[in-house]
Every structure is written in C-alpha cells, then in structure tokens.
Write a structure and sequence with these properties.
This protein is of the alpha+beta class. Helices cover 43% and strands 22% of the residues.
C-alpha cells in the first residue's frame, strides 16, 4: 500500500508469500493432505495492535489494514490475495492460538473474526460483502474446526506410526518379520478406512493424508504386479486410484454463494484446467481433444464434476488469461486444446518425414504418434492444406503421400 503516493507497510507485508501454480492459482500442499475449504471476497485485514508492527524494511508509514482482499481457507492455512491477483500471502493455522467473533448487535458494526496470533498479535478479518454475516459465520465455523483438527501435525503422526511399525517388525527376523510387517500394515489400513468412512465428512478430512498414503501404496503394488495381473477389475482399480487427486473441495455453488460471479468461477476453472492439462499436453505432443480433456478432468475431480458447458466456457478463456494454451476448432468442427507453443508447420514436417519411405494411413499415424485417430485425421488434413502432404482416397482406405507436385 501507499500513503500520499509514498510506500508503506501493512499487516499483509509481514506474512510469508504464498506460492502460486503456473496458472496463478494457490499452490496447495498435497503431500501434507491440505484441502481448500472456503473462499470469500471483500474482506479487510486489520491489525489491532496499539502501535505499528515491526517494519520489514520497506520504509514509509505504517498502515494498519489491507482492504478488498480475497480470503481462502484451507485445512492448514489462511490465504490473502489482492483483488487484482498481484500477490498472495498466508497465515499458518499453527500461528493462531485463539479465535472469536465480534461486531453486530445494536452498534451496527461490521462482522469481524478476531485472530489472536503468536507473531503478529491480534488481527481482525472484517467482512464487507452483501452476505457478510453468513461469510463471517461460515469462516468462523470452518476455521475453528481446522484449528481443533490440527491437520498440519498429521505428517509427524504418520512418521511416528511408521517408526512404531518398524520397531515391532525389528523384533523378528527373516520371513516372519516380513509377514508380521505386512499383517500390521493391513490391520492399520483396515482400521483407518473403518474410522474414516463410517464417520462424517470431518472424519474423512482428518484421515485424508493417511488415506492418500494407502492409495499410493496400492497403486505402486498393482503396477509392480501388472505383468501377472489378468483381472480386468484390478486394472480398472489401478487406473481409478492413480487418477484421484484434485485438492479443492470448492464447487460451482460454493463460489456463487461466496458472492463471486459466474465469470470468476469460469476463470478459476480455466486455471485449474490449465494446471491439470499442462503435463498431459507435453506427453500428448501439445494437443488433446476437448472430449478427452473433459473425461480426464472430471475423473480427477471425483464427485465434484463440471458440466460440458462449464468446461467449454472455461476452455474459451484459456487464451485471454494467457495460460499458455487455447481452444482450437478445426474446419471439421472438432475442438481441441493445444499449447501455444504448438506449431502446425512443425507437425506437418514431422508427418512428411513419416511418409518419406512409404505412404501412411490415418490409423498408422495414430499408432506412430500415440494420439487418437480423430486427432490424427485433423493433423493429416492440416498438413495437406499447408501443402506438405497429398492424399489418395481408394475403396480400401485413404493414403497420405509426400506432396511431390511442388517439385514440378
């Protein structure tokens, strides 16, 4: 912030910076079982200290508040983001030792959430949206649960459990030690699943980190025994477990309830889609069909599914948000998502090289490039339009040749 054009410091600048994904979303610590629970806008962060807090070396005057912030609550941290998305900071739950509410009543004051912290003293969250009372109560309820649950200590508990299991197994030797260790691990997994799935959603979130560890263990075991597995159900289980992992518990209705517009929802969905598709686009050669993207994205989201119309609207925003990919429609009407670095001319030259020795069919190109036949057809036709290939359609199939007409 600035005062009369001069630089200043505020409570926000005293918090650690939050890491962002390539698309600009908050980077959640998946390995520690962190889950996003709530997001609200039009929030003000105030310091209730009698004097200025320690200067972080920024110079200028002290400002005791930051206005018009977007607050995101996870099981581990409180994130504060500027409205223009120029930066994000966080307050870890372990730094909060007391939580209370204030405001309202006959004084008509803003609803506030009071945070007593170890490092920054008393901080207040003031809610200014049209649903400010509900926003304050929702945030208070979920933050109190997160503080009671102390999910950030889960990793230490997992390490202690592992140490205890190793000590028990160390008392035995040989095959007996291996069998005892496996039996103990299966017993712990059974107890965990009974506890997590027989209770409510809070129990499930509390045991989320350990459940993820078990899932990863089963995926690794099934992959190692993949050559000897003939059971189709086991193959399906491997594929299903390996594709679990979206870490946001926020749905479309949650964002609309928090006074964020449909436009905000589509922008967030576009950024989530970009983060999810970027590694897959690299392995797919830079292009993936919109149908495949829809199936993969929804499979990873589990029960928090998006509709085809929502995904299409989000895909149309990839380009204007500058997320290094965009939606493209081929002349045939086929829609794909492709990286901005993808070059039709380079792909055409690659296809031309493949056809150097012998002509190729659509299916041969699909197998050679490891892409769907529908996408292979569009790439071949694009190379033909650019003049690198020509085709010969027969009763049997369509063959693609190097375009020799350019040599005459």
């Amino acid at each position: 912030p600035t005062v009369n054009g001069e630089p200043s410091w505020s409570p926000l600048q005293l918090l650690p910076r939050a890491s962002l994904t390539l698309s600009g979303l908050l980077e959640i610590d998946v390995d520690d079982g962190e889950v996003e629970l709530l997001c609200r806008k039009e929030v003000e962060l105030r310091s209730n200290s009698t004097g200025p807090l320690p200067n972080p070396g920024m110079g200028g005057a002290w400002v005791d508040r930051n206005i018009d912030l977007i607050v995101s609550l996870t099981t581990h941290r409180l994130f504060f983001t500027n409205k223009d998305n120029k930066g994000s900071w966080f307050l870890h739950h372990s730094n909060i030792y007391n939580l209370s509410v204030s405001g309202g009543g006959i004084t008509f004051k803003l609803p506030k959430l009071v945070l007593n912290t170890y490092a920054l003293g008393e901080l207040k969250l003031c809610f200014r949206s049209c649903n400010k009372w509900k926003d304050r109560d929702d945030c208070h309820k979920l933050l109190q649960k997160a503080l009671d649950r102390k999910a950030w200590e889960t990793q230490n508990k997992l390490q202690q459990k592992q140490l205890t299991s190793n000590k028990i197994a160390a008392r035995k030797v040989g095959v007996d030690a291996i069998l005892s260790k496996n039996a103990l691990r299966h017993k712990e997994a059974a107890q965990l699943t009974d506890l997590a799935f027989d209770g409510d959603a809070d129990d499930l979130l509390q045991e989320a980190a350990e459940l993820v560890k078990i899932i990863q263990k089963y995926v690794s075991t099934l992959e190692l025994s993949g050559e000897n597995v003939n059971n189709h159900e086991q193959a399906q289980l491997t594929d299903m477990l390996s594709n679990m992992g979206m870490i946001s518990a926020l749905s479309k209705s949650d964002l609309l309830i928090s006074n964020r517009s449909l436009n905000d929802f589509y922008n967030i969905l576009a950024r989530q889609l970009a983060d999810f598709l970027l590694p897959k686009l690299k392995s797919a050669g830079g292009v993936i069909s919109l149908t495949d993207a829809y199936c993969l994205f929804n499979r990873a989201r589990g029960t928090n599914l998006v509709s085809p119309d929502d995904l299409l609207a989000a895909s149309n925003r990839l380009s204007c948000l500058r997320l290094k990919m965009s939606l493209r429609t081929f002349p045939s009407g086929v829609k794909v998502i492709q990286q901005d670095a993808f070059d039709d001319i380079q792909m055409a030259k690659k296809l031309q090289t493949l056809c150097t020795t012998n002509p190729l069919t659509l299916m041969q190109v699909s197998r050679e490039l490891h892409i769907p036949s529908l996408l292979a057809k569009e790439q071949l036709l694009a190379a033909e339009r650019l003049g690198y290939l020509c085709r010969d359609t027969t009763l049997e199939t369509t063959w693609f040749y190097i375009n020799r007409f350019l040599d005459f």
